[in-house]
Amino acid sequence: MEVAGLDSDGKEFKNAEEMWREKIGEGDQQKKTEWYQQGVGYWEGIEASVDGVLGGFGHVNDADIKGSEAFLQILLSDCFGADLRNRHLVALDCGSGIGRVTKNLLLRYFNEVDLVEPVSHFLEAARESLTPENGTVSDLHKVANFYCLPLQEFTPEAGRYDVIWVQWCIGHLADDDFISFFKHAMASLKPGGFFILKENIARSGFVLDEEDRSITRSDLYFKQLFNRCGLHLYKSKDQRGFPQNLFAVKMYALTIGMPKKNSRTRKVYSHKPAIIK
Ligand SMILES: C[S@@+](CC[C@H](N)C(=O)[O-])C[C@H]1O[C@@H](n2cnc3c(N)ncnc32)[C@H](O)[C@@H]1O
Question: For the chain, which end, N or C, has fewer CB atoms within 10 Å of the first or last residue's CB respectively?
Fold first, then answer.
């Protein structure tokens, strides 16, 4: 990534490679492990609440879920179309925190959802709130597995998922782990399955947050990483309705190759005048 970036102390790096060399070293496993421990350590000190996992911006939850739902509906229809009703839909919520996305969105569309999250008190809060007793899950829409792991150490089960949801957590992964996570996770998608990545976007290059050890990448930076993963960028959409002082947020739908068009969404475009039948 040949574009300059900044850290939260205002220090400039001429490119991402220079920043990663300084922060995690080159092949220095101990330095990298410390980087990841500090990231998780930050979240271990945060309250297990919507406001906590949204960095004090709990009020954006409704707009976030609304934007995600509209995007997900388009993708489900494009990728599964008429098959949708017959599919037993399974999703993975990555860096799930307290299960905010699972509870407010994924469980309404998927029969099973798995959560992967490295901070145990977040995952425990998710386990307590996603129960039949409080009406969030049922026999047809339930959480199947809670994995307490960081993404760089998680290899999802092959061929299990229709959708892998990655929101506001991939900034914790260094580029090499980002790539190996997606490469492994590609094998865990069912045929026709896809990723949704929803993230803050830097105006250019990257911005490194020293407090929680995360990096906000630009749209171009993400696109270069998608290429290196061998992922196809099928669609993207900007999140609307967030306060102006926050980073812009984008949703990316990523597939392995071009999805097959299904009969329900196929349109025939003609450049000639034609009778409407
Ligand atoms: C901003 S919160 C977002 C939580 C959730 N995705 C949501 O949208 O409500 C960031 C989450 O990333 C998790 N996280 C930190 N390091 C991680 C890592 N290496 N792998 C996966 N998740 C990580 C944190 O514990 C926290 O739950």
Answer: C
